[in-house]
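Pilot study result, target chain (64 residues):
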Amino acid sequence: MVGKLGRVTATISPGHLGEVMVPVRGGSEAFHAYAADEDVTISPGKRVVVVEYFAPRTIVVTPM
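Predicted structure:
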């Protein structure tokens, strides 16, 4: 998962979960997501990179 690109589908704001669609296994799947920088808000439609993965469905991302 780390290093994969995704697209934000629900706003990621400081201290709150958002949602990111990430291509896996030939399709795309939704993951709960936090921003790596705790002061950043990432809007829907923005592309992000996965920097951490917590099984089964939570990721930490940074904007591209």
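One observation from the pilot: Strands lie at 5-10, 18-24, 27-35, 47-54, 58-63. A full batch analysis is planned for the follow-on phase.
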